Amino acid sequence: MKSVTIKDVAKRLNVSISSVSRAFNNSYDIKKETRERILRTAQEMGYYPNPIAQKLTQKKTFNIGVVVPEFINEYYSEVIRGIQDILTSLGYQVLIMQSDNKHERELKNVKTLIHNMMDGLIICPSVKSKNMDYYLDEINKGYPIVFLNRIEQSFPANKVLFNNTKWGFFATEHLIYQGYKKIYHLSGSNDLGITKDRTQGFIKALAKHGFSKDDYKVIETGILPENAMARVQELIDNKDLPEAFMCVNDLVALSTISVLRQNQIEVPNDIGVVGFTETKIADLVSPKLSSVKQPTYEMGKSAAEMLMKVIKKETMSSNTIILNGSLNIRESSIRANQ
Hints:
It comes from Ulvibacterium marinum. Helices cover 43% and strands 16% of the residues. With 338 residues, the chain is of the alpha/beta class. The strands form two sheets. It has a six-stranded parallel sheet, with helices on both faces. Strands 7-6-8-9-10-12 form a six-stranded mixed sheet, sandwiched between helices. Helix 2 (17-24) crosses helix 3 and helix 8 packs parallel to helix 9. The longest helix is centred in the first third of the chain and has 16 residues, at 74-89.
């Protein structure tokens, strides 16, 4: 059976081939009624345009690249869901690549996506991302890039961030209001902007309430639970425990609770613990974990919406969106008789 062509559709409707083409490309210079009639007739005749030809005509691939540190992390799975919900609704395909928290792999992924003609990129930098010159070069060439999380607020690019300083402050102040007098912060890598911001919030809260430097410590554990467990065990062995921990994320918080229990130290009776990022398991463990909730799905949506504006040249080259969260107070940080 002979395939239906664009010429056949034009002949059936007694319109030009260019009119049919403009209808499928949703051109501004064709009436809505005419476009709908052409599309309806084409569907009835079984004609579908060549997607590759369409993309070449529009100089767009309708493909967006996303680079994240890891797939299994609940934080990034929610971010990806937000990105996909926006982009797929607009007719884009989303190609996701994982950096394994390695800057070299992240850079290789980004270069691969750019060389494969993505219309734009959303990048969640790895823990070790330091040299950002390549990204700045691409941005200066006009390539659409939006960064999400783990990027300095001062970095001159379009980005979506969480207000880590504010919520690091509130998480710490909650512990202070519970009556804890000696508080340690188990922080992420000092290379990360989010670590600096949360630590800044931690110290600001302590300063506001008159804590001296002897009343707190900032201990760099990184984001991996095994590193946190080793550092907490070291504190126990050295008899250098605080009254409460404010942790960089929920995995570190849960690992901390695990080590404390192994040493017959109960949470929250002996030591309070607060996490960060609000994983689903926070409400399922015992004791239930107090944690700062980040709007991860909304962050993904915001990044996708911002990228669309960048592609359409509707936004500045250095625009920043900062989202807020909430502190979910549960059993792990509530002190008895408070």
